Amino acid sequence: KEGLTEVDHQQMPFEIAYGMSVTTKDGVYYIGGSTDAVGAKTITRLTTDAKGKLKIEKVGELPFKIQNGVAGYANGALYIGLGNQDGKASADFYKFDLKSKELTKLANFTGALREQSVYQILNNKLYVFGGGTNTALTDGYVYDIQKDTWDKAANVEVDNKAISVYGGNSIKLNEDEMLVIGGFNKEVYDWAVSNLGSLKDQELADFKAKYFGADVADFKWNNQILVYNAKTNTWRSIGQIPFNAPCGEGLVYAGDNIISINGEVKPGVRSNRIYQGFIVK
Questions:
Q1: Which of 107, 181, 187, 259 is the most exposed place for a label (fewest CB within 10 A)?
Q2: pTM passes above 0.85
Q3: Which helix (H) or strand (E) holds 175?
Q4: All structural domains of the chain
Q5: What are phi and psi of 79, to 5 degrees?
Q6: How far apart are the C-alpha atoms of 7 and 173, rounded to whole Å?
């Protein structure tokens, strides 16, 4: 039977919104993201027992607040950084050892500062694509965990056309590949940011009314289902999603099922819909 069944209901000890989640065999780690000063520094682990009872456990605290960054898990440690740290965009990057609770500063990110990138660890390397601040970015970078170095990876590009995945989400398909859904359209986003930052008084009010009142289709968010292959360092599209392109959605890979949960379909408008796709092997 399809539908939602409530197994357990609990509340986090602080408000959450723009943190990073990392799924491991030991549970899901949720990092920062809160508007609460303590919550924005907290590393939380969520687990369930055999009956689905949820356990919420604080496992660490960072010396800085973080939102909209990147995070991954490898070899007993969380790799955390970028995004907004202590109120400003940052290139700082860290390793948090889950056993010793030791935080180690790593090599700084070498690209333009950014938030809301898509990212995954593939073959013991962390890949970071897109994101942005005042402009949407379409470039890519890779962090080598063993060497503690950042290098350039392929830009997000299919058939010689750059694609913004800023605000989209990703899942790890296997050790070589990640799949991405969603992302703001670069031209529309950059145009909107420029106008919202330069117009004044009535012109600004008129622009906001027109912009935020526009139809979903006018925002041209990325509806391509994109796959990045780390072995070949290339992107490809495997088709289009049959629903409005989301940003800030939950994206889950369970068995051969890909589940897209909620997300915005245009600025300020969230969907309550859940979509399920299947990988045919």
A1: 187
A2: yes
A3: none
A4: 1-106 (2.120.10.80), 107-281 (2.120.10.80)
A5: -110, 120
A6: 27
